[in-house]
Amino acid sequence: MNCSRFHRWVTFLAVFILVSPCAVLSALVPLSNCYTVASDTRFYDLTSLYGKEFNYEQGTTTYALHFCKDFQERSQTGYVSFGTYQPGPALSSTPATANFVQEYRHGDLRGCEDYGTQFNGRETKVAVTCGSCPGKEPCKDPAGCICSVEVEIASKSCVASVVLAIACPEAGPKVVEGFSVGFSPRGREVVNNGFTQWGYENTEHSDYSFETSQSKIFLYFSAPTYVAKNIGKPTYSAYPSKGLAVKLSGTAAVGTAPTIMTPSVLEVDWFCESQNNYVLTISVPVLGYDPVEFSLLKLCARKQAKEQTGSSGWATFGILSCILAVITTVGCCAGILYRTRVERKHGLEALPGVGLLAGCLDMFSTDGGDGYRRADDTTTIIGEHRPLRDGASSSTRAGPRPLDGKYGAV
């Protein structure tokens, strides 16, 4: 392989990496549990400082903070644990001079068995300031230093307050705290507290993929009330762009605001039009925040035929029923006109099908098989079926009385 061909291959590989969706991490995913969200909802990834030890000497006691791990009080008699790091948003309020707060809980219980409402033992609140200590010289360590440590006597020395100054990394995007996406009304498998979960941030995890037969999935959005009104209609993009038919529907697709108690539903209908693996990236816009994005991997092993929905079947049934009703009405009206004007029939005999109905009744009749007779044969029927009295013969039986047209004649 000559140099020119080698350079062409290198250029092609570089372009492929740049345009590949796997190379761009658009979703907000923490690289570790060592992260925080500042008071302005900005995301700070502190993974580079994970485990960094900061020491502070106060008399004969040395305090050691292992960043994002634990906080200890060391002396000649040993050491006392003041808690381990608790990831996620802090429950304590952030001081005016700090950017965010870290909490360390579940420390040693000795002497603090009955402290607090949850009996978690010793705990520490670390107020982190980006830059240098307030009113002091810059830290000698470029990574940062402990400004002060105070063990609260009023709390039986069970709570420590630490002020820490560090070189904060560049602030990340704004986090939509409280916003969650899952496969059930209370699920948080896809997005939890504004962060895209592992497995749905890119296309490298085939264990979190969907098979060809899964042509429909439901996603449930939930958010606090103060955030829900800012959530817009989700959009999507597929890679490759052709070969996967996608349709978004449901309450979330039309922009219905979700809440914690009544989540909105996003129905994703996707069908494989060709055999390939597809990445569906869904972006949820939130006013005042960066969009929340997550990816779904679809493995199309074959071409998939679109299923006919139940609504289309009912529509077909309704159309056929209307056509049948119109044809029946027109045929009945035409039959009545023909029998009244051509055959000179009136009354019930003018209705189409009455003769057929009379024939059926005559065939299934159980009265001896005499059948249906016309109305003008009434006297004959009465005469023929008059029962014989005792001592009277059939030869002397009186015949039917002729109709004389007078009232009272039988």
From TrEMBL:
> What are the boundaries of the signal sequence?
1-27
Answer yes or no on keyword Signal. yes
List all membrane-crossing ranges: 314-338
Keywords per UniProt: Membrane, Signal, Transmembrane, Transmembrane helix
Query: Quick one: where's region Disordered?
Result: 384-410
Entry keyword annotation includes Mitochondrion: no
Indicate what this protein is called per its UniProt record.
AT4G36440-like protein
Species annotation: Riccia sorocarpa
